[in-house]
Structures are given as C-alpha cells and as structure tokens.
Amino acid sequence: MNVNDLLQEATDVAAAYRSYQGGYFKTLLSPEQSGGGLAMLDMVLPKGAEPPPHIHEKEDETFYMLEGIVELVINGTAHTLLPGTALFAPRQIPHYFKILTDTARIITIMTPGDLWNYFVEFSKPCNKIPEITSPVPPTAEQIRYMTERLSSRYHLNLLIK
Q1: Can you tell me the distance from the alpha carbon of 104 to that of 106, in angstroms, rounded to the nearest whole number?
Q2: Domain spanning 3-158: CATH 2.60.120.10
Q3: Per-residue pLDDT tens for 5-38?
Q4: Model's pTM, two decimal places?
Q5: What are 72's strand-pairing partners?
Q6: What are the extents of the domains in the chain?
C-alpha cells in the first residue's frame, strides 16, 4: 500500500464517522436502510457527554456495551452495563445513563429509526480520524434550540428542572 492509498483509507474512515458531544459515532443501519423500522449507531462517548433524564414518546432504545462501563437508569432503577451486556429502554419510560469509565463504546438501536436524524442534525462530519475530546457545554441558546427541536421534531422530552 502506498502513501496515497493510506491517505485515501484515512479519508474514507473519517468520512464514515460523525463528531458528537466530544465523541463520535458511525451509522451501522440508517432508517432509510430499514424502511424506517430502526437505526443502529456505533457510538464512542466520553464521560460527561451523557443525556439528562428524558422520555421518548415514539422510540424504544436498546443499548449493547462494547467497551467501558455505563450505569443506565430506567424508571428509577439503576442497571450497570459491562462489555457484552445489553439493556432495553422502552418508549414513554424515563431513562438516562451515566458513563462510569473515561469513555464508553455503545451500540445503540432505536426502533423505529427516526431519532437517528437527531444525531445527524446535532453532529458534524469528521474531517480526520475520529478522536475523543472533552465535551463542550452548550450555550444557553444552544440548549434552548436543542430542547425545542427534541420536543417538537423528535418527540423526546427532557426531564430537567
């Protein structure tokens, strides 16, 4: 393999990923590929990039741990997810997770798959090999916009006070 091939391979790898909340993800299955039935993401997130407690009106989520340790709280009950374990979070039930290691790699499955569009909307294409950075807290304006979009477009309600 020559230098140009290596550069093209690195470019192709970077193009497959999107930067999100200090981490990154790769779409394994888009809603378009499943007739809208599901979406599947391979996500790598740093500690501090977790969502607040929330309720999905329309989607179920399934989490499968590849690396790291996460505490997933569903309807007030905490579950520790270790590599090789999975957990189902049904729609209309409050849930959130907390990353207990520096990073976590999680396969996330959303059924149906429309919430995938949120992750695309609030991420950016990687222009180099993806890497973990410290999550940058959003501004008050970004929080207002994201909260409104989550509620009106994605039917996800944040349970923050």
Answers
A1: 6
A2: yes
A3: 434 444 455 568 999 999 999 999 999 999 999 9
A4: 0.86
A5: 79, 97
A6: 3-158
